[in-house]
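Re: the request from the purification team.
They wanted to know what the chain is likely to look like in 3D before they choose a buffer screen. I agreed to run a prediction and write the result into the notebook, where they can find it.
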Amino acid sequence: MKRINFYKFLRISIISLVIFSWLFTDLSVFFGLPSQVKQAHAAFPQVAATATSSRFSNLVDDTVTLPTGVASGDLVLVFHASDGALTRTFPGSWVEIKDATVSGGTANIGVAYLIASGGETSVVVTKSVTERFTAIAIRISAASWHGTTPPEISTGATGDSQNPDPDSVTASWGSADNLFIAIAAIDANASMPMTAFPTNYADNQINGNSTDVSAGYEAIASRNLAAASDDPGTFTATATEQWWAGTVVVRPSLAVPTTNRTKPHLVRGKVRIRGHVKFR
């Protein structure tokens, strides 16, 4: 019959358990303490660069200038406006998420995005009829947006006034540090530029680059908001005009859990146990 000192056995067992738990689990959870695994805070999607382009002659194909420094994984958004009730086609890997006309069908807007391969400088948009165009393009850095979840856009609203009023958008992924982009498109550039943008949309306030009164026109503005949805206020145009307005939402990058792990602290002291344990 072999006897094992119970105190030594208990001490070895506890030390082994502590080391194993520290190496392979969150020790604080094992002992019922507050977890030391912390959720990293996801930053808002960052607009790294913008660009505008236009052409004042009637053609089918429009070369839209993209922002500088496009890198792999960047999210590029293009807001393309033109006169008339035409439609448009974006090439290759571009995905169009909106093709709409203003009230009365006298002008139109298309919104599309690209998950960039890197190095892109322009995109050729093909319209269904010959027309002039204006466009705004923005680049959102790869590290700051989700990477796979596409941007989403509202249904859109139309009217005939001096104040294009974007409708609300609700992100399918719910509340997060989202980027919201308000958009307005109007018929005639005689009513441009926008003299005021929606309240709280203080970032990236951009009027399309055009002085041609016969071209469609667009303007955008953005805000960072930790919410699932937002309903922007109104733009203010120079004069009353037929318009379409909507809202885009972009999902932020995923937060990566981080562990603030420290070495476990053993309680010092002596445990006195009388007797022995027999194993057969």
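For the purification team: The mean pLDDT is 84.
Please add any questions underneath this entry.
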